[in-house]
UniProtKB/TrEMBL annotation:
Name assigned to this protein: Uncharacterized protein
Organism encoding this protein: Acetoanaerobium sticklandii (strain ATCC 12662 / DSM 519 / JCM 1433 / CCUG 9281 / NCIMB 10654 / HF)
Length: 156
């Protein structure tokens, strides 16, 4: 996962990690974290599927919805690695078990949720194209197997 950072006319992409996120937040940088709904937590999916607070854009000619968006404020929890010196201090305190390697931190973020009919149509088209390829490959494979079976029975 990557984070897109914008500022002063520059656009940078950095790898997502707790320490990078902490740095961005502490320096008051604006940042975007992008990921798919498919890989998100159940809690996040519930936020998305709630019908309230969506701003809906409708095509005035057809009356069809072409996009939806909403902004949700939420606390984001992430892990930040503890420095070696802090781990050593923790080990000296003679606590049982493994020393902690990460601290958990939280920051308040705005989550921008978007939906568009054109993206849905593209995904549907991609899925149908993959299904068609699969059907074609299955037909070719079946033909090859049938041909081999016919050849082997003719040889006997």
């Amino acid at each position: 996962m990557y984070v897109t950072v914008t500022g002063k006319g520059k656009l940078r992409v950095i790898q997502f990690s707790g320490s990078n996120l902490e740095h961005l937040y502490s320096q008051n940088h604006n940042f975007v974290i992008s990921y798919t709904l498919k890989k998100s937590s159940e809690e996040f999916k519930k936020l998305v599927w709630e019908e309230n607070e969506w701003s809906v854009k409708v095509n005035p000619d057809t009356g069809e919805i072409f996009s939806k968006e909403k902004i949700v404020s939420k606390e984001l929890e992430f892990k930040v690695p503890i420095s070696e010196s802090q781990i050593a201090i923790e080990c000296e305190s003679k606590k049982r078990g493994r020393p902690k390697k990460y601290d958990k931190k939280t920051v308040l973020v705005n989550i921008y949720l978007t939906w568009s009919a054109s993206r849905v149509a593209k995904y549907r088209s991609d899925r149908m194209r993959m299904i068609d390829r699969l059907k074609k490959n299955m037909t070719l494979t079946q033909f090859k197997i049938t041909t081999k079976l016919n050849l082997s029975t003719n040889l006997e």
